[in-house]
Amino acid sequence: MLNKKLLFIAVIIMLGTGCRSIASTVKTDRLRNFPAEISEGDIIHVATGEKITFSQLADSFDGARIIYVGEVHSNRESHELELQVLKEFYKRSNGNLAVGMEMFKRPHQKILDKWTNGEISEKELLYSTDWDYEWGYDYNHYKEIMDFVRDNKIPVIAMNITKGFGKTIRKKGLEGLSEEEKETLPEIDTTDVYHRKYLERILMGHGHGDTDMSGLFEKFYQVQCAWEDVMADSITRYLSTPQAKGKKLLVFVGGGHIIYHFGVPKRVYRNNHLPYLTIETYEKRTLNPDKDHPLFAGDIPLQPADYVKVVQLPEPKKTKVVLGVMIRNLPEDGKEEEKEENNKEQKYKVVMDDVREDSPAGKAKLQAGDIILSMDGETMNRVFDVIYHVRQKKAGDTCKIKILRGKEEMTVDVTFFESKK
User: Fold this and answer.
1) d(Cα 80, Cα 76) in Å, to the nearest integer?
2) Residue 89: which of 41, 139, 54, 50 has the closest Cα?
3) pLDDT in tens, 361-407
4) In the prediction, which pLDDT does 8 show?
5) Which residue, 98, 106, 103, 91, is CA-closest to 66?
6) Angle (CA) 36 41 47, round 5°
7) Which of 124, 138, 172, 351 is the most buried (most CB within 10 A)?
8) Hey, which bits of 226-359 come out as E strands?
């Protein structure tokens, strides 16, 4: 009897020791297979730590119905990977492919359909989807992707809620939404422990670690969960439609929404159980040995992705050309309106409120109060038209700007040069 008691106690001790041992080795075990030395351009199969070629990565596409590519929004190499995956997945699926994009919001789906069908221009796409407000990142990073889907008539799925709705959730919280607002959302899951831990780290990393952030975090967390459940809902809904029959889906989304699988991928999988894989972009950087590896949080015992593509940190922002004016829309009847976005068809006069002396506009002697009528012969009907036209310019380019000054029309030649302002 005594021996049995001693044996029982020994087993308990061993189990207890074993549990502590497992917990203490989570970090090292998960990093053990990950290469100690990585270089820009490496593709790593996370489960084994093997470095593979893109061709070997592409061989895994055939078994997936959905592929998620987690991008770094401002990193051009990240978008080059997306384009490479898009072209390969399109080829391997014999053209039976659709693309889901976080960058576009669900109310803009009809606009994306027009883009796919070649019915609108790039300028109309950006204006009608409020690209600068709703997304804000450099469209040039996405241009080749969007051109490829249009040229090949690949359906693009708008996945996310609008920025304004996100602000409403942040202000009211999910419980504070009206019944009408709640009806536009799927069920929002805020119960994933590891997902919460990950986003707590994100918020603390943005300088909130020394303050009581409980209230701030809950609002932040609810918005994140709403984004991810809405995007998952967009994917699930599309794949259940007759139009999606036989199609595969490629999803472009911020890396934080797919890392550890618990963002969008998990929420989609529990709805349809379709096979998928994740490709995460990782910006190589100097690591602090006293801190967790960016891909392997010590308190999250999950693999960050199926594959990781290593890219270099982006170079400092280059100087760009600007016109150097403060401009606003003035309705043609001369009456100010509070919200231009409520009427996309409205035409305006574009008025200069201020001109910087050291800018291209200042050097050309443009003045506050001037009204821009056209640029290089193209009529300017709103501020967006001017911004879009200037973005097509580079240092050394010239532009003929027709203006109205008082009652006199005149044409001014402007030469663009680089500016850091």
Assistant:
1) 6
2) 54
3) 999 999 999 999 999 999 999 999 999 999 999 999 999 999 999 99
4) 41
5) 98
6) 50
7) 351
8) 248-254, 276-284, 307-312, 320-321, 325-331, 348-355
For the chain, count helices (H), then strands (E).
15, 16
Q: Which two tokens stand for residue 415?
A: 């030469």
At 182, which amino acid appears?
Answer: K
Residue 347 region, left (φ>0) first, then alpha (ψ -120 to 50), else beta? beta
Render 190-238 in DSSP notation, one character per residue. Answer: ---HHHHHHHHHHHIIIIITTS--HHHHHHHHHHHHHHHHHHHHHHHHH
Amino acid symbol at 241: T
Q: Using CA atoms, how far apart are residues 216 and 218, in angstroms rounded to an integer?
A: 6
Burial class (CB in 10 A: 0-12, 13-18, 19+), 119: exposed
Please give the radius of gyration of the chain, using alpha carbons only, rounded to the nearest integer: 26
Among 269, 257, 198, residue whose Cα is nearest residue 226: 257
Q: What is the pLDDT of residue 202?
A: 83
pLDDT at 14: 37
Contact (Cβ atoms closer than 8 angstroms) between residue 178 and residue 134: no
Residue with the bigger pLDDT between 35 and 210: it is 35
Hey, what are 302's tokens? 């999950």
Q: What angle do CA 15, 21, 27 make, to 5 degrees?
A: 145
Residue 292 and residue 31 in contact, taking contact as beta carbons nearer than 8 Å: no
Contact 109, 162 (CB under 8 A): no
Split at pLDDT 50, 70, 90, the class of 20 is: very low
Angstrom CA distances, 319 to 197, 361, 395, stand at 38, 17, 10
pLDDT band (50, 70, 90) for residue 5 = very low
What's the rounded Cα separation, in Å, for the pair 393 and 323?
A: 10
- Count CB-CB contacts under 10 A for residue 186: 16
* 26/329: higher pLDDT: 329
Do you know the residue count of the chain? 421
Residue for token digits 């036209």? Answer: 389
| Residue 353 token pair | 């409120």
- For 112, other C-beta atoms within 10 Å of its C-beta total 24
Across the range 168-174, mean pLDDT stands at: 93
Token digits of residue 122: 């790039």
- The rounded percent of the chain whose pLDDT value lies above 90 is 76
